[in-house]
């Protein structure tokens, strides 16, 4: 488990150094304990080359958390070209080894990075200094200064206003408004040991002072009572505060802008092939439009096509009213219960078709065949005797 300590890394390092010094004053070291391990100059250069992309970090919180959870989360957020090597270097201290310049720049100079809403402080690390002695100055964040009059919206004026918030690294005078309001965007280092700045003041001679609201992007975890990051107001003191005592709040957070829809949604009754909307919907609208145009569906929609395989009325021996219609007309004699076919119908014939052949067993057919052959032999023998 890892946790943050309010005493800070520098005080812990001093205690560690003083403890070693006190021990060495009372210890008599043996010769084998004084045997040195020598690192040559060439090896030092090689080690320095490998340590170019080192960084050290800590999570700005007092709560306990898992180092493995931190490593997994940050790897997913950073999404580097190669997975960094991560290890614990002390109580709430972590060393990250990147493999290329691009990954190192992203981890150290971009952000802000947060873990479970807490700020993740990242500093460059040369690998020589004791991690306990590293000082984490602050967190680079994007801040916004709202309501600067257009007449005074100048680079040097905005730069002076930004210095009231923290160490300024970048100023964006004309940026695309992804957030609500009219603002100037600045990339600034916020000291985590100081409360967040809520307003900056612009004093114009002859016009008086103007209070300009400061908002922050992607800062989720700060105290509404003292303004410090790393805890909320319920964890500050006994956690019981009146509404007046909460001097910080959500008004300091930048809100994302919601773009209105420019395309009108289609009605749900226009269904196409395979779904709510599709090619069939357009075809359906075209059908309705043709009906609205009052097209005559009477004569134009009749089937007037002909085929050479069809029998035309002229080919039926004087019958002009039959056309392509074929039917069977049966006259029923109710007294006799017989059905007589109409001779005027095409294909009528008085000949009675022969009955279907009856089924004969194969054995019976063989016997009949043998009998017929024996009869033929007897007839041929009798005719030969008559000839004699």
The largest β sheet comes out as: 5 strands, antiparallel
Uncertain ranges: 1-10, 289-295, 297-302, 312-320, 322-339
Span between N and C termini? 133 Å
Oligomerization category of the chains in this entry: single chain
Helical residue percent band: 25-40%
Overall pLDDT, averaged? 75
Topology pattern, helix = H, strand = E: HHEHEEHEEEHEEEEHEEH
**Count of DSSP H/I helices:** 7
Secondary structure tally: strands: 12
Please state how the strands of the largest beta sheet are arranged side by side.
2-3-1-5-4
Structural class category: alpha+beta
Task: Tell me what portion of residues adopts beta-strand conformation.
Answer: 15-25%
Q: How would you sum up the global shape?
A: elongated
Over the alpha carbons, how many angstroms does the gyration radius reach? Answer: 50 Å
Written account of the structure:
This protein is 25% helix and 19% strand. With 388 residues, it is an alpha+beta fold. The strands form three sheets. It has a five-stranded antiparallel beta sheet with strand order 2-3-1-5-4, covered by helices on one side. A five-stranded antiparallel beta sheet has the order 7-8-6-10-9, with helices on one face. The chain has a two-stranded antiparallel sheet with strand order 11-12. The N and C termini lie far apart (133 Å).
């Amino acid at each position: 488990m890892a946790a943050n300590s309010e005493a800070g890394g520098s005080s812990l390092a001093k205690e560690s150094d003083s403890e070693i010094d006190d021990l060495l004053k009372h210890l008599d070291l043996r010769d084998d304990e004084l045997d040195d391990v020598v690192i040559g100059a060439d090896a030092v250069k090689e080690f320095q080359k490998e340590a170019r992309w080192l960084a050290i970090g800590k999570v700005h919180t007092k709560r306990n958390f898992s180092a493995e959870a931190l490593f997994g989360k940050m790897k997913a957020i950073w999404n580097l070209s190669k997975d960094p090597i991560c290890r614990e270097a002390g109580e709430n201290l972590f060393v990250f080894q990147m493999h290329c310049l691009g990954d190192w720049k992203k981890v150290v100079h971009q952000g802000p990075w947060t873990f479970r809403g807490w700020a993740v402080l990242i500093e460059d690390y040369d690998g020589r200094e004791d991690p306990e002695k590293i000082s984490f100055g602050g967190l680079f964040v994007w801040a916004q200064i709202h309501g600067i009059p257009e007449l005074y919206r100048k680079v040097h004026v905005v730069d002076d206003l930004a210095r009231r918030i923290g160490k300024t690294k970048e100023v964006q005078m004309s940026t695309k408004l992804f957030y609500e309001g009219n603002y100037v965007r600045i990339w600034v280092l916020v000291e985590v040991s100081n409360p967040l700045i809520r307003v900056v003041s612009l004093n114009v001679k002859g016009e008086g002072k103007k209070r300009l609201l400061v908002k922050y992007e992607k800062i989720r975890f700060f105290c509404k009572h003292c303004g410090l990051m790393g805890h909320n107001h319920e964890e500050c003191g006994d956690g019981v505060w009146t509404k007046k005592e909460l001097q910080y709040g959500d008004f300091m957070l930048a809100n994302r802008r919601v773009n209105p829809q420019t395309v009108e949604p289609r009605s749900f009754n226009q269904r196409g092939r395979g779904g709510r909307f599709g090619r069939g919907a357009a075809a359906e609208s075209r059908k309705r439009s043709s009906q609205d145009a009052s097209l005559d569906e009477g004569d134009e929609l009749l089937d007037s096509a002909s085929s050479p395989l069809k029998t035309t009325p002229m080919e039926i021996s004087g019958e002009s009213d039959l056309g392509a219609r074929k039917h069977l007309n049966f006259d029923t004699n109710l007294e006799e219960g017989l059905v007589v076919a109409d001779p005027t119908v095409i294909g009528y014939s008085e000949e009675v078709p022969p009955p279907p052949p009856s089924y004969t067993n194969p054995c019976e057919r063989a016997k009949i065949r043998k009998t017929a052959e024996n009869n033929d032999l007897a007839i041929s023998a009798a005719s030969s005797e008559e000839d004699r």
